[in-house]
Amino acid sequence: MLSDSEFLRYSRQLLLEEIGEEGQRRLKRSTALIVGLGGLGSPVSLYLAAAGVGSLILADDDTLHQTNLQRQILFDSADVKKPKAELAAKRLKGLNPSISCRIETQRITQDSLPTLLHDVDLVIDCCDNMATRHVVNAACVSRSLPLISGSAVGFSGQLFVLTPPFAEGCYACLYPDKEEPSRNCRTAGVLGPMVGAIGSLQALEAVKMLAGMPSALSGQLRLFNGKQHAWTSLKLRRDPLCSVCGGQHANHAE
Ligand SMILES: [Zn+2]
């Protein structure tokens, strides 16, 4: 049941027939893991907390740096040098006291991730490095968890959604090479609204999916050119030889 206060707080999304009371109760029962609390994780965590996603796991091993403030809208100038996950939990609880926030301040590894994924309904990858992306992808495939992945560098943004049984493949099909790209936000720069736009769209898909709606993006890769304001849409294709999902899909087909 929703309380009077919840009916009031969420009234604008309760009005949506695709969400309604049932969708709101689903959001309340949901647990989402947000990997990375930077430029993407800021809007993702703010929108999920505001929408009433009942339980958030906030993973970030970094402390706040002055260079983050240009785009990481979760944080204040006075917070520099403090752990981002702790700062985020405080900010999000202030925004919506009824949600619960768990924090993970150690870097996610293949060994640490499975314990974090207990009870998780959906994973939102907002991290800034290839190694973590591959670890998160492999864990989502092996545990059949939906994954919403975003990234942005320069004026280029990228967004995709993977859902079980991963018929269109996984992150490792798209990027089999695990080497870090030389072009990243540190070397090439990025505008705040670029990560804001991609992060907001990750949040949109997360709220829809947790409320019980399908994602129109499932199995697709969307590329955003922020200079031209142009979107390109590509269909993801599973690599039958993919070391992460290739075997898994073959098993399903048998
Ligand atoms: Zn794959």
From TrEMBL:
MF (Gene Ontology): nucleotidyltransferase activity; sulfotransferase activity; thiosulfate-cyanide sulfurtransferase activity; ubiquitin-like modifier activating enzyme activity
Highest taxon above the source species: Bacteria
Upper lineage: Bacteria, Pseudomonadati, Pseudomonadota, Gammaproteobacteria, Enterobacterales
The THIF-type NAD/FAD binding fold domain sits at: 10-244
Entry GO terms, CC: cytosol
| CDD domains xref list | ThiF_MoeB_HesA_family
What is the recorded name of this protein? Molybdopterin biosynthesis protein MoeB
Q: One Pfam annotation, family name?
A: ThiF
Question: Which family, according to the similarity comment?
Answer: Belongs to the HesA/MoeB/ThiF family.
**Residues annotated as transmembrane:** none
Quote the InterPro entries the UniProt record gives.
ThiF/MoeB/HesA, ThiF_NAD_FAD-bd, Ubiquitin-activating_enz
